[in-house]
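quick one, 384 residues, struct below
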Amino acid sequence: MNKFLTPRKMADRLEEKVELDRETCGRFTSELFEIIIREMQNDDTFSLFGFGSFKKIYVAPNKGRNPHTGETIYIPAHYRIKFSPAGKLADRINSDYAHLEPIILEQDEMIHEGLLLKAERYIMTAAPEPETAVDEAVLIEDTVVSGPELIEENFETEPEAPVNEYVHHEPDFGFKKDSRNRTVKMALISLIALLIILGLGWLIFRNDSSESASEIVVTEEAAAEESQAVEAEPIPASVPEPEPAAVEEVQILPETSYDIAPGDSFSLLAQKSWGNIYLWPYLYRRNSSTFPDPDMVRPGDNIVIPPQPDQENDQIRIEDSILFAYQRYRTLISEQTENPRNPNRELSAGYVLLGGERLYPSFLDRKKAEIRIEDVRKVEDLDL
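---
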């Protein structure tokens, strides 16, 4: 079974091995995967010193079968990545199996051969000529039917036949001895086991019936006591005033764990979970320690979906999360100046601010001090 190593799982392992916080481990693993993806897009092979080498292998289109429905499906052409660990890393991976040694089986030795194979070889080496074999079969049949006297006559009339020698040297593997006794023993054991099972079933049924009867008796006694208590209680002179209804406590919904599926993103998950795509920065900020790049989510990664925020009561937290996502895009663009995804990050940063303006129309005016003036103008152009 394949064990997929996602950035989140790798970050968890790093956090256990080294003295770093969760956010730093998450940023490191995300950057490592990003470097590997970028290099594999530029070339067919890529080597990381001390870690291993990656090779891109082309897989031609093919027909397959859906394991769930059984229908024929078309598998388009794609690339498969093969990873070969470095020497020290390979030794570390295989350290659990380093104590194992191969066992070489030589064909001439019969140490590991079973009894049936030995018997087959014996018969092949002791097999006579075809004519002799026919005579031998006839003699064996006569011997079995006629008894000991005919065996002596056969030896006197045909001394050259190898029947006696073959029967004398026939190996005994223990298949014919005490066959009747063994059958009787097995039958007795089966009968005893059946009786034990029936006895246990009877005891269990008896205990259940006794418990149910005792419960019925106790219930009837309790009902009788309650009826007597009701009859003994005096009728109050005045009906007491009803107590004021208790104020219902606000239930705080728990967070939900979700595994990323193919095609998912923070914006789509916000739309599916809360019905509002502009709230995706709120979802991203909750998982930002695991996903340093808002656009880098892969199938199999695990995220936490918090309860849906209230647009009015949680306005401050929603606006802070929008600014947080915007500043994260600007930080990635400034730190990775040669990244080919920077143009898309520019657009994403603008759309984040546009979502804030759609949620709260005065968002840009109130947050101008924390936003680049160029980005404010871009958002105004997009809004037009």
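The first helix runs from residue 7 to 17.
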